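Quick one: structure tokens for this chain, please?
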Amino acid sequence: MNRIVGLIVFIILFMGIEFYLYRVFRVHFSPKSTGMKVFTIIWFLLPLLCIIFSLLAPSMGKTGKLLVTNLVMIFFFSILLTGILVFIGDLVRLIGSVISKPKTEQVSLGRRKILANVGLVIMAVPFGTMLFGLFKTAYDFKIHRIVLKFPNLPKAFAGFKFVQLSDIHTGSFLKHDELAEAISLTLNENPDAVFFTGDIVNNKTEEAYPFIEALKKLQAPMGVYSTLGNHDYGDYEKWPSVEAKVENMEAMYQLHKDLGWKLLNNDNVILERNGDKIAIVGVENWGASFRFPKKGDVSKARAGTEDIAFKILLSHDPSHWDAQVVKEHNDMDLMLAGHTHGFQFGIEIPGFKWSPSKWLYKQWAGLYQNGKQYLYVNRGLGCLGYSGRIGIRPEITLIELQPA
């Protein structure tokens, strides 16, 4: 019921903005002209087509559904953003005209045309940028190479290299070769181990099935280790029964076995090299926000690692670090997380990094330090919701450990 009410409110709001922008943009056309008629037909036909294609999307197959959903999303977002910004500009113009009334109607018309031109630019920017992010940069993978030094790193693990991957979200991949490329880039780095920090799917385990053969190729001499993210539990799917959700979860566990990945559900594994040892501790999802499950148990996961000098913690949500890890588990030398995707939107240039993600997460992308402990937040390999990226590229992280 709430969804229906929300949808009705959205449609009313959207159509209101549509009519408002129509009145703004029609200033470019003479009344009753052919141009005006064509503009009117196109302007109101586009949202109608969006609604029709949205209804047909479920029958178009995965790729068609994803593509249509994203194109409709881009159209609606561009209209809504343009409407808000143009309304603000119109309000400023109105206040200005009250304070300083135009001497002629021609001056007033000129001001309205300027507003309409600005509105067209405002609409073109997000529309064009989001299309570019969808078709060009969604899977423009970037390898982040980092060297971290620790005084307590066992000598045999000097030069130990591992790749961290996170947030694959197989349900959002438009083509199979995109994921195959990411795995090929990973293998080319010749890592000693691979760590995956959760969210292999969006909603259902079956989303990963078409990619099993590609994912099986992800191998490393010392193994592939993984944890679960908030999307891996099936919590965002409306299941026909409790049993169906349980079956989905069992399928998730089996998926990791079929891939040859060691799933660390509040568990650990000891890696040994030339007699020296390090511990890889993995927890289930734990998020500080009430919106995400708190299944992770570091105390349980670390059992048996008390005598291991160096520990790496795999935990999907970076909010876990401030909320628990640095307060209660200061022997976790390095925590690896994902989850944020860097919001799939932002600016990253040398010396400057920004994304709306920072409003939700204190640690949202890259390397962070608290005393002797480090946290690395991977920007994610896949996408969620909007199947594109703008400014925040999908990430493959290569970390090399060295003694301090």
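Residues 2-135 form one domain.
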